[in-house]
């Protein structure tokens, strides 16, 4: 509904803009005074070319003479009003012949004045038709701020119609811009973010520029200070183009913009900043005006090419953006046709100003659609985030419940196992009093039972340690320790210390690390070597500490029946080799080694040859 009303306002504004009151001028001609020295008597005899409103394409200011041939018989009024625009022409001198001589009058921003009855943004001369000799008027135009000038001669009736049409057009144009500002505010608060904010700034500056174009500031604020009016107009024009550039960049926030486009945009931004600073010294620069004119014509095409190369999803959204961008370019170019001198200039005040207004309407469709797409994406992201948070909460609850279950099982299993182990030890001591021939078999069974109890304790301890890792309860508490003592203690705690040979590079190796965590690493590596090496084969553990303070521990053993593990999975949780299921195990030992090495700030790797397998731990103090 909002967009329908907006389009209705644009249609009414376009009708009012295109409405034309009857004009008394039959023919317009132009002559360029290259010397800037000719007077009216010398100019009258010159050959004038056809004038369509265009003043200049070059960057060098020149004096233009405009000849207006009028039709006095087209009206019954004896007085008329010559309406000239736009209001920011530097100087316009009117020459009309009375009683054999030429009368000269001035208007323009060098001659500011309050002109009652003159349309907004225009200059006016009252013409007494019955006192005018001949049918020709001459204008001498000196400007550094305009490319064209509109010339119309109205009787009083036509002037009233012109005022009404221009007032309606100006009111509707400002109304459309106000509606776009309201829309951009709504889009911003509905999640439009930076795109809606830049669009708001663009339309706000466009409204301020339109008021300058319509002469509001000249008539009410800067009527006696033409320099200020020029300065305000050019500043607003540069700022509007600057925000238009930012708006084109804002569309690529969630897209992958081509690198060349971003580089080119940075250069244009620098040019606008330099131009803005230069306005403080010279409010009018023909070079800057030419650059701005070129930017208005070509930048939309550059933006369209960048959109074609960008990855826009979904496809329907991409098609809509490209279609509307193409339509906007054609409409803007159509509005620029008079400024290029390809058709008669009637009411154009600023090149592309009305076309820019229509482009803003279509841009609002693009912005609204882009905001809708981004809002949907944000909703999807929020939904996914909520889903992940719920899943994380569920996993956290499951980890907590698993931890509680492990604590319960640990408590329930450790006490009976300890009692069984004590009973087995007492039984073994009692059997020592009997003859060996009678107790050998019983001793072997009791030893197997004690070894099985030790294995169950190891499994329980690993589960507790893994749970502590999951709960992040393991703290790193480093201290100075003798490495050989730690390694000897771990060796004695194994099930078969006789198979293990310890090599320490030099006695008295002191290293700063957590002793309890290092003991877990060594114990699991030795247990893994004892379990999966050939029975009764030797196991070697080598410890070194280099000058840089790097501690290296290598555990090597002969490869057993289970073969070599997968290097990519050997440190994964619950991983067990293809041929290891004949041996008891949980697949947690090497996972603990890797996790604790990460906590200690080190790393562990696995290597193997045809006969042996090596686990290498490296820690830095």
UniProtKB/TrEMBL annotation:
Record-annotated membrane-spanning stretches: 166-189, 196-219, 231-252, 259-281, 287-308, 320-342, 348-368
Keyword vocabulary terms for this entry: Membrane, Phosphoprotein, Signal, Transmembrane, Transmembrane helix
Keyword Membrane annotated: yes
Signal peptide: 1-21
Catalytic activity: ATP + protein L-histidine = ADP + protein N-phospho-L-histidine
Enzyme class at the top of the EC tree: transferase
SMART domains: HATPase_c
Short name of one Pfam family: 7TMR-DISMED2
Entry's Gene Ontology molecular function annotations: phosphorelay sensor kinase activity
Entry's EC annotation: 2.7.13.3
Domain Histidine kinase: 408-621
Name used for this protein in its record: histidine kinase
Native source organism of the sequence: Zwartia hollandica
């Amino acid at each position: 509904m909002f967009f329908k009303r907006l389009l209705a306002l644009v249609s009414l504004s376009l009708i009012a803009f295109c409405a034309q009151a009857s004009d008394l001028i039959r023919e317009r001609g132009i002559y360029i005074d290259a010397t800037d020295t000719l007077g009216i008597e010398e100019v009258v005899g010159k050959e004038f070319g056809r004038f369509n409103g265009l003043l200049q394409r070059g960057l060098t200011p020149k004096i233009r003479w405009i000849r207006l041939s009028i039709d006095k018989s087209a009206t019954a009024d004896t007085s008329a009003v010559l309406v000239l625009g736009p209001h920011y022409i530097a100087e316009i001198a009117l020459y009309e012949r009375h009683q054999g001589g030429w009368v000269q009058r001035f208007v323009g921003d060098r001659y500011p004045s309050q002109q009652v009855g003159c349309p907004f943004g225009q200059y006016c001369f009252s013409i007494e038709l019955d006192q005018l000799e001949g049918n020709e008027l001459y204008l001498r135009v000196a400007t550094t701020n305009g490319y064209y000038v509109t010339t119309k001669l109205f009787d009083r009736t036509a002037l009233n119609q012109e005022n009404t049409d221009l007032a309606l057009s100006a009111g509707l144009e400002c109304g459309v811009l106000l509606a776009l500002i309201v829309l951009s505010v709504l889009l911003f608060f509905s999640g439009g973010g930076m795109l809606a904010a830049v669009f708001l700034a663009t339309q706000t500056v466009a409204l301020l520029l339109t008021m300058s174009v319509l002469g509001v500031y000249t008539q009410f604020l800067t009527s006696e200070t033409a320099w200020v009016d020029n300065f305000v107009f050019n500043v607003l024009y540069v700022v509007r183009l600057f925000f238009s550039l930012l708006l084109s960049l804002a569309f690529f926030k969630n897209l992958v913009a081509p690198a060349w486009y971003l580089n080119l945009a940075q250069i244009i931004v620098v040019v606008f900043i330099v131009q803005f600073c230069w306005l403080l010294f010279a409010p009018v620069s023909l070079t800057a005006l030419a650059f701005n004119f070129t930017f208005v014509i070509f930048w939309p095409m550059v933006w369209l090419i960048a959109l074609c190369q960008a990855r826009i999803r979904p496809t329907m959204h991409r098609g809509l953006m490209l279609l509307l961008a193409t339509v906007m370019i054609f409409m803007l170019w159509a509005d620029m046709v008079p400024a290029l001198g390809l058709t008669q200039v009637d009411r154009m005040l600023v090149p592309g100003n009305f076309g820019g207004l229509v482009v803003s309407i279509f841009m609002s469709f693009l912005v609204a659609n882009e905001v809708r797409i981004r809002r949907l994406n944000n909703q999807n992201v929020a939904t996914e985030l909520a889903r992940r948070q719920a899943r994380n909460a569920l996993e956290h609850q499951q980890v907590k419940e698993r931890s509680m279950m492990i604590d319960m099982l640990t408590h329930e299993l450790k006490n009976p196992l300890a009692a069984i182990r004590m009973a087995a030890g007492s039984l073994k001591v009692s059997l020592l009093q009997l003859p060996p021939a009678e107790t050998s078999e019983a001793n072997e069974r009791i030893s197997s039972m004690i070894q099985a109890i030790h294995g169950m304790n190891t499994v329980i301890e690993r589960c507790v340690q893994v749970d502590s890792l999951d709960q992040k309860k393991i703290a790193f508490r480093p201290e100075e320790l003798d490495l050989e003592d730690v390694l000897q203690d771990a060796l004695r705690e194994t099930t078969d210390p006789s198979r293990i040979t310890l090599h320490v590079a030099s006695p008295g190796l002191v290293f700063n690390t957590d002793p309890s965590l290092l003991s877990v690493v060594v114990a699991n590596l030795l247990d893994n070597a004892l379990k999966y090496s050939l029975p009764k084969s030797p196991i070697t553990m080598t410890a070194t500490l280099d000058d840089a303070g790097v501690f290296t521990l290598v555990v090597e053993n002969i490869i057993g029946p289970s073969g070599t593990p997968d290097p990519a999975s050997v440190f994964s949780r619950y991983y067990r080799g293809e041929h290891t299921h004949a041996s008891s195990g949980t697949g947690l030992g090497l996972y603990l080694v890797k996790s604790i090495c990460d906590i200690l700030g080190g790393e562990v790797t696995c290597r193997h040859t045809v006969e042996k397998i090596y686990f290498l731990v490296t820690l830095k103090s």
